[in-house]
Amino acid sequence: MKLIIAIIRDEDNDRVSGKLTEAGFRVTFIASTGGFLRSGRSTLLIGVEEERVEEALQLLRTECTPARDARESKATVFVLNVREFAQL
């Protein structure tokens, strides 16, 4: 299992979260601030089976709007190994 942490622009959150949910991914959203000009960001936590990581990353690539400035990225994404997972 992997954990994808995706930091995206607030304006992309509803669309990206919706597309991920439609595709069967579970998404947790955390409001955050940072990046270029300390603008509003959304941090998405996405638990993913290893064989579906690329599918989730492709959704992020296509659904996040392009960067408006050369110093800004459309998203910052981390993919982490998960050693253990439990729902309590």
List the helices and strands and how they pair.
Layout: E1 2-9, H1 10-22, E2 26-33, E3 40-48, H2 53-63, E4 75-81
Antiparallel strand pairs: 1-3, 1-4, 2-3
Helix pairs in contact: 1-2
Separation, N- and C-terminal Cα atoms: 17 Å
Kindly estimate the percentage of residues that lie in beta strands according to DSSP.
35-45%
Structural class category:
alpha+beta
Query: How many separate helices?
Result: 2
According to CATH, the fold-level topology is Alpha-Beta Plaits
CATH hierarchy, class? Alpha Beta
Oligomeric state: single chain
The helix fraction, in percent, is 25-40%
User: Largest sheet, order of strands side by side?
Assistant: 2-3-1-4
Number of strands: 4
Radius of gyration: 13 Å
* Coarse shape: globular
Description:
This protein is α+β, with helices and mostly antiparallel strands and 88 residues long. The chain has a single domain, classed as Alpha-Beta Plaits, CATH 3.30.70. It is 27% helix and 36% strand. It has a 4-stranded antiparallel beta sheet with strand order 2-3-1-4. Helix 1 packs across helix 2 (53-63). The longest helix is centred in the first third of the chain and has 13 residues, at 10-22. The two termini are 17 Å apart.
